[in-house]
């Protein structure tokens, strides 16, 4: 009859499995034979003991400060100062022995920086149009110089990078040349300008009015 319906007759093992699972008798206990030999411990792949450091680098980054950079942004409506430390990892080459010559050159040509202080005119309580005035930038520059001295961040040369030509630019130069910058001036190594020059290009955004 199963052949007429296009079905195949189940094998004998199939009925044995059905009888085994449908049986009401208690299961037979599992018999364990002792061959007298101790099995080898199971080994996991790509897993190592915490104390086993064969083939792995145990060096940690050892960053030291080489210099400081004071980034100054003088926009029409605000003034921003960012004081960053240029750091070098003395273990960088030992931790990356497979780097190419170009990769090593790029690392030392532009060492990474870590921000130490960031301040703007708004941090001193200036709001709206007052943030773009001369007095706001002068007080912000004085606050920056004072914070640098309080945190003892004058132990390395300082590079100053200025950008844009807002009213705060003249105020910053005046504060740097005045008594406010007495402790900062001897540490200055270079002063550069990073204002981008536009040649043609797309239309500029509309003037922001406060």
Automatic annotation (TrEMBL):
Q: Name one GO biological process term.
A: translation
Q: Which SUPFAM superfamilies match?
A: Translational machinery components
Give a GO cellular-component term: mitochondrial small ribosomal subunit
Its chief place of residence is: mitochondrion
Compartments reported by the entry: Mitochondrion
Q: Which UniProt keywords apply?
A: Mitochondrion, Ribonucleoprotein, Ribosomal protein
User: One Pfam annotation, family name?
Assistant: Ribosomal_S11
Which InterPro entries does the record cross-reference, listed alphabetically?
Ribosomal_uS11 (IPR001971), Ribosomal_uS11_sf (IPR036967)
Carries keyword Nuclease? no
- Tagged with keyword Ribonucleoprotein: yes
Gene3D superfamilies attached to this UniProt entry: Ribosomal protein S11
Annotated GO molecular function terms are: structural constituent of ribosome
Any idea what job this protein has? Component of the mitochondrial ribosome (mitoribosome), a dedicated translation machinery responsible for the synthesis of mitochondrial genome-encoded proteins, including at least some of the essential transmembrane subunits of the mitochondrial respiratory chain. The mitoribosomes are attached to the mitochondrial inner membrane and translation products are cotranslationally integrated into the membrane.
User: What does the sequence similarity comment in the record state about its family?
Assistant: Belongs to the universal ribosomal protein uS11 family.
Mind telling me what this protein is named? Small ribosomal subunit protein uS11m
């Amino acid at each position: 009859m199963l052949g007429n319906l296009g079905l195949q007759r189940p094998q004998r093992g199939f009925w044995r499995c059905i009888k085994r699972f449908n049986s009401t008798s208690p299961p037979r206990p599992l018999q364990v034979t002792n061959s007298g030999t101790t099995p080898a411990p199971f080994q996991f792949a790509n897993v190592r003991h915490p104390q086993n450091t064969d083939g792995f680098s145990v060096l940690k980054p050892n960053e030291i400060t080489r210099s400081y950079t004071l980034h100054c942004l003088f926009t029409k409506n605000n003034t921003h100062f960012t004081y960053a430390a240029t750091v070098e990892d003395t273990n960088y080459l030992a931790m990356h022995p497979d780097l190419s010559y170009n990769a090593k050159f790029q690392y030392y040509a532009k060492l990474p920086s870590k921000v130490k202080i960031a301040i703007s005119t708004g941090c001193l309580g200036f709001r709206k149009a007052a943030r773009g005035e001369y007095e706001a930038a002068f007080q912000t520059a004085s606050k920056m110089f004072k914070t640098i001295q309080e945190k003892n961040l004058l132990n390395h040369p300082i590079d100053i990078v200025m950008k844009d030509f807002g009213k705060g630019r003249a105020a910053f130069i005046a504060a740097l040349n005045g008594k406010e910058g007495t402790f900062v001036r001897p540490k200055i190594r270079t002063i550069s300008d990073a204002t981008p020059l536009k040649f043609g290009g797309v239309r500029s955004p509309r003037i922001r009015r406060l």
